[in-house]
Each structure stands twice: as C-alpha cells, then as structure tokens.
Amino acid sequence: MLSLMAQPDCPLCSGTGWRLVERVDANQKAERVVERKDAVLGASAAAPKFTWAVPCDCTGGDRSSRALDRARIPRRYEHCDFENFDTDVWDGQPDAGAWNRRLSQARVVIEAFARNYPAGGETGILLMGSCGTGKTHLAVSALRHLMLRGHGARFYDYRELLKEIQASYDPDHPVSEMGVLEPVLETEVLLIDDIGASKPSDWALDTMGHILNKRYNEKRVTLLTTNYLDGSEVTVAPVRMPSGQAVTAPRDQTLTDRLGPRIRSRLYEMCRTVELIAPDYRLEIRQAGRVRS
C-alpha cells in the first residue's frame, strides 16, 4: 500500500493525497476507473466520462522532478509553462504587432489543446517556425500540463533519438533496439523536438516513418517542433533587434526537403499545424535574463 504524505490544505486533493483526472475513452488503461456520479440521465448523448485517481503532486516534494525525469524533459526546459511564455517580445519593432499576434495565437492554440485533451481525438500538433520563437517552450508547456493531469508523456530530441536507436544496434549495448523504440511507440503523448534537424538519410527517414506510422495507426498523439517551413514561407524578412544587430532567418529548404513527401503527408494527417513566424530573438531574450527555445 502506497503511503502518501499529503498537504492538508492542498486545493487539488483536499488533503486526501489523491486527485481525480478524466478520460473520455473507458477502454484505455486507468487506475480506479469509475463512471461519473454527477451525470444526469438524458442530459447528453456524448460518450460517458470516466475518472480515476492518481497521487497528488503535494504528496512528495520531488514528485515533479521525478516526473520530469521519467518524461525525459531536459533541465533546460523544466521551467517552461504557458504562464511564462512571452507574447510581447517584439514591442518597439516595425512589425511587432504581427509577430506578437502570432506568438499569442500560438499560445492560445497549444494551451487549448492541452486543456481539452483528449477531447480533440488523436490529432497532434506540429509547431513550425524560425529558431528562437518559442516552439519548444510551448510544446514542453503542453507536455507538462498533460503530465500533471496524469497522462503519460515523453520528450525526445530528434537527433538524439536517432543516435539512441543507432547505438542499440551494437551487440554490447545495454539496451536493445526495441528497448529504445518501445516507449517511443507506446507512450500516450510523444514530443519530438526539432524534427528534420539532421541531414536526411534513407535509414533516418525509414525509422522516423515507422515511428510516425505506428503512432498514427494506434491513434496516439504526437507533438513535433521544426525549424523548417513549407512553400513560400521559407524566408523571414530581415529585421534589426533592439541591440542593433541585424537578423535574417533564411531557410532554403522546406520540411518536405528534410523529411520527404511521404512523411510530410503523414504529418498533415496526424497534426494540426501551428506556425510561429518571426525573427530569432534568442540573443535578446538571453540578455534580458530569459530563455526561449
């Protein structure tokens, strides 16, 4: 029996050590699954909601840290949340209104996805945009939000994931190929950061195609970020930052160039595309004592 040391004034569990989370699909595995008792007969024709109990965050001071470790969220991003995602970083620039609106709209979309999950079904999110616009920040914010609600989640950097799979081919490697791939394929919500970052090869494209197709067929949600865009939007106009540094964000290749038409087509089916089109503001953010990725 798990012993829980709950905080008596915790607003989430009222001191019980347990909090309830909902899941629409009752066929998914869950602990202590019970039908909602506040349902009103004839009030809705929608599928019944189910709840199950999970240990509250207040039961352990390092529970959040352990959850981050299990999800593989890098320490660099452990601070990321919707609350500290800035949407006014370009104030004072000629095109500040347009760029800030894109940041604000992206936050609204991603926050709504995390709040409403899994009501949106199996549709994931593809965050596309220039370096330094906050794609990873928003994606990790969504992942952390879902983790706190009891959903399984994992973070993988695209290049590191491919390296881990390659390393598993060594017969002396402690983890087999399936040992690496199983959590990637089976986790409820997967975040692949910076997809398309490494030079495409037949092996890399076949491997990523297998992962995405498997998750698509099993109706598992995938979040992705990429610095590569589509079509005519591959170039961001030059701009001068408050420091006086001139910045351009040219991108002479598209996401299709980096992943191939087959994988790009699959992503259209799997994900809603959210674009963050703005210059790289990373240097300015760091000088201000903040971090954006």
Helical run tally: 9
Taking Cα atoms only, what radius of gyration do you get, to the nearest Å? 21 Å
**CATH architecture label name of the largest domain:** 3-Layer(aba) Sandwich
Mean pLDDT: 78
The termini sit apart by 41 Å
Strand content: 15-25%
Proportion of helical residues: 25-40%
**Molecular shape:** globular
Q: At the third CATH level, what is the topology name of the largest domain? A: Rossmann fold
Explain what you see.
By secondary structure, this protein is of the alpha/beta class. The protein has 2 domains: 1-61, no CATH class; 63-287, P-loop containing nucleotide triphosphate hydrolases (Rossmann fold, 3-Layer(aba) Sandwich), CATH 3.40.50.300. The protein has helices at residues 63-71, 96-116, 135-148, 158-167, 177-186, 202-217, 255-259, 261-270, 282-287, and strands spanning 18-23, 34-35, 50-55, 124-129, 153-157, 189-193, 221-226, 235-240, 246-250, 271-276. The strands form 3 sheets. The protein has a 5-stranded parallel sheet, with helices on both faces. Strands 1-3-2 form a 3-stranded antiparallel sheet, with no helix packed on it. Helix 2 (96-116) packs parallel to helix 3 and helix 5 (177-186) crosses helix 6 (202-217). Residues 24-46, 234-239 and 246-250 have low confidence and may be disordered.
Key attributes of the depicted protein:
single chain, 293 residues, 2 domains, five-stranded parallel β-sheet, 10 strands, globular
